[in-house]
Every structure is written in structure tokens, then in C-alpha cells.
Amino acid sequence: MVSRRLLRVKILQISYAHFKSSDPSLNHSEKELFFSIQKSYDLYHYLFLLLIDVADYAQNRIDLASKKRIPTHEDLNPNKKFTDNLLIRKLEQNKALKSYLNNQKLSWVNYPELIKNLYNEIKESEIYKTYMSSEISSFTEDKKFVSDIYSHVIAQYEPLYQNLEEQSIYWNDDIEFVIQMIIKSIKVFKANSDEETELMPLFKSDEDKEFAKRLFRKMILNYKEHEGLISKFIQNWDVERVAFLDNVIMCLAISELIEFPEIPTKVTFDEYIEIAKFYSTEKSNVFINGILDKIVEYLKKEGRIVKTGRGLIGEV
Known about the structure:
Elements: H1 4-20, H2 26-66, H3 73-76, H4 86-93, H5 95-104, H6 112-124, H7 126-133, H8 139-152, H9 158-167, H10 175-188, H11 206-221, H12 223-232, H13 244-259, H14 265-279, H15 284-301
Helix pairs in contact: 1-2, 1-11, 1-13, 2-4, 2-5, 2-6, 2-10, 8-10, 11-13, 12-13, 13-14, 13-15, 14-15
């Protein structure tokens, strides 16, 4: 489930914290890294539960309205398209989801206002209005509606970000990544899917877990060496004057370039430039781009960047 991009971001964050610690321990920081990754997986399940709870809130409103002393025609004949959404109900019965939520004790029960306000936000969206007024009723339509709600309403709902940041420091930058994984998971569900349908595993493969562990360790162990390499290519600048986060990003990129021959140079290069755009200063990505370009050229000449594997031999 956890993408390589998110793994790189997690390694960057924990590496930064490691070097800023007054008493850094590699083993402790590595445990912190994998705990942080596990928290992303918690969020994956937690955000699935969020829409289930919003639909349940909507059902409770319908039940209460029907019990009014003098209910209206609408109260007695509500539009239950949202509450009966076939995908939401499949998720509610999914054994893997229920088991994980129960084991990790994840619940929105302490945040009724968020559930209520998110329901109102969804209800006011054009996605909801179009869906509820459509005479089409199919699993395909229900699935598209859920995917659109995650993409265009939940992903844009600022109070959710504030709430999750208060719940866990590990979730600050995870929401958009996790919602992308939820949308990918939704595509797996079919009309005949049952409660045994599997959700995404924490790691896509053992290779991804090994990638995270190895990259983090190489980054920490070789930081001083790579920092020295950076200093060779910074004209008119002392390496200490470069933003510390920029140094960490570049050292992480260098570690990946050297240690993972199966990953194309361009992939690594582009990944860290994109990360710099988001996490560092406004001009950092241009600066990092220029320095890394020189370092890559130098390391290739030195024979320290050698790419092997299908389509990578002789990479320029």
C-alpha cells in the first residue's frame, strides 16, 4: 500500500529528526521509521471507516425523521441512495477492515462534530446532488460516487487535516498519499465482491520493505561522506550555510543513486526534486537540481553509479 514516494518522504522525515536529536541512535530511529510507516497504514483503514460513519450518521438522521410526531412525506419516503450505497455497505462488512480497526482500536466515536460537518459538506457538493438525483442505480455508479467523494470532497476538507494532525504527528503529510491508495483499493471491488475481499497490504512487496530499511541505513551511515561530496560542488558556499533540509534531501538522493542499481537515475532524480518542491524552500528544488546534476555526472565518471537490470544497462 505504501508507495515508494511516501517511503522516501518518511525516510527524509526520520533522517532529519535523527540528525537533530541530541542523542541519535540508529536502531531507535529505524524503529521510529517503521512505526511511522505503520501509522500510514492505520490512516488507510481509518479513512475507510470515516465514510462508513458518515453514511451511518445519514441513516440515523433518516431514522429520527421518520419518528417525528408529524413526519412529512419526505421523512417517510427518504432518498436512501447514499445510505444504501453498495460499495459503502461492502466496506462496512469487510472482514479485513473490521479486524484491523478493532485490533488497532481505531474509531471516530470521539469526533461526532467532524462526522456531522463532513456529512453536510458532502451533502452540499455537486457530486452528491448529481448522484442523489440520478435515476441510474448500479454498483458502478455507487463505486464512482465513493471514489469522487474521496478525491474531491474528503481530500479537500481542511477540518479533517486539522483533526488528524491533532490526533497524530505522523499523519501530517499522509492524507493525500493515503487517499490515493484508497482510490486504488476501490477499483478492486466488484459487484460480486464479498466480505473476504482483501485490502492493500502494508508493503506492496518485500522489496519495498527492504528498500526502506536499506535506504535509511545507508543514508545515516554515509551522511558525512555524502555531505563532503556535496561541498565539492557548491560554488561560493560553505556546506554549513546550505539549508539543513536541503543537505538531507541531497544526501538521501545520493544514497539511492549509489545503492540501488535497479532504480533508474532519472526516477531517483525526479523523485527528490519533487520532494524538495514540497518540503523545502521556494528555490530549493532549483538549487538541488543543479547540485545533484553535477554530482550524478561525477559519480558516473567515478563508476560509483552503475545501473543494471532490464533496460538499465548503459544508462546515460
